[in-house]
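Private note to self, pasted from the team thread so I don't lose it. Backbone tokens:
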């Protein structure tokens, strides 16, 4: 078995590992697709810390089940599965009652525990979700992004025709905009990178605003007919501060901060902003409860994710891809690894 392991900032190695036994309730997977994610890049760059060292990178994978351990009923040899990054701790009261999505100390593959940038893995059966035949393996690498976007949209509880400003045209932001359109809301997507806004437009987003070239507040004022946005989604990794994104919400509006732990740039907001404008702000850092809905959206082709794959690489090229994306963070939107 081979795994891409990180030993410290800039030090990633392809290690030969012993093959793991398939324990009770676990499945052995032959990984077919993985990806180089934002957290992999931040860990590689020394910006984000890991729970242990060395640590196998990789938040997610698509894989074929090659062996099922004792007690495994829902999965069998030959099944195609996706492993989202979330893994229940197994000891809290939510986990004990089978509600892993509510785990109080959810672990993340590739950050808190060994990840999935490897050729074979043994995981608990509850961490692997079977994919319907209609879902492309490459697309399923985006399951987590769709799930977290669905979770954010559910928090906002928007109605048809309402305006939602999305600050940050990253993968989650562009998927959020597509989900908003699917539910007949009006997304307005904001970013400083013209090529990201063009991609959003190609995927059906009508209102895009470049926050370097335009006065965003004025644009949102005019798009919403002077009402300002019913809701704001701020991507935690967005370059602009959260306080700026909140300026686009109407009085009494709602906001959700979305992103993975450890990737936030600037989330400082004076509480008097919330008070004066009567804003409701919530945080969403995972989509564990929306994984099945995300797979359904992929099966029904309700979101397009393939256009966001900027590069496909082989397993041996992961080290070079990490070094390149750490040096040029905006060059690739999503790097898919095909084994
Ligand atoms: Zn738990």
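Design output:
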């Amino acid at each position: 078995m081979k795994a891409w392991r990180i030993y410290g900032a800039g030090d990633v190695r392809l290690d030969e590992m012993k093959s793991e036994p398939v324990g009770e309730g676990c499945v052995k997977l032959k990984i077919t697709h993985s990806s180089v994610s934002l957290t992999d890049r931040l860990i590689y760059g020394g910006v984000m810390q890991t729970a242990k060292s060395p640590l196998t990178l990789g938040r997610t994978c698509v894989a074929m089940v090659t062996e099922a351990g004792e007690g495994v009923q829902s999965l069998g040899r030959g099944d195609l599965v996706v492993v989202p990054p979330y893994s229940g701790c197994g000891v809290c009261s939510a986990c004990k009652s089978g509600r892993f999505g509510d785990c109080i100390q959810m672990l993340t593959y590739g950050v808190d525990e060994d990840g999935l940038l490897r050729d074979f893995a043994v995981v608990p059966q509850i961490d692997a979700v079977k994919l319907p035949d209609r879902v492309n393996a490459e697309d399923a690498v985006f399951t987590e992004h769709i799930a977290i976007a669905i979770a954010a949209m559910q928090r906002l509880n928007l109605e048809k025709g309402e305006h939602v400003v999305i600050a940050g045209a990253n993968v989650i932001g562009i998927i959020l905009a597509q989900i908003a359109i699917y539910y007949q809301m009006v997304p307005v997507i904001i970013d400083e990178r013209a090529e990201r806004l063009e991609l959003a437009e190609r995927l059906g987003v009508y209102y895009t605003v470049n926050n370097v070239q335009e006065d965003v507040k004025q644009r949102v004022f005019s798009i919403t007919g002077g009402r300002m946005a019913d809701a704001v989604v701020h991507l935690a990794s967005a370059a602009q501060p959260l306080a700026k994104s909140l300026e686009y919400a109407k009085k009494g509006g709602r906001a959700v901060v979305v992103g993975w732990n450890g990737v936030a740039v600037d989330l400082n907001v004076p509480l008097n902003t919330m008070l004066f404008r009567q804003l409701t702000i919530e945080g969403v850092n995972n989509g564990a409860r929306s994984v099945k809905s995300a797979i359904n959206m992929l099966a029904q082709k309700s979101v397009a994710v393939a256009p966001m794959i900027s590069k496909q690489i082989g397993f041996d090229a992961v080290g070079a891809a990490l070094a390149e994306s750490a040096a040029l963070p905006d060059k690739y939107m999503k790097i898919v690894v095909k084994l």
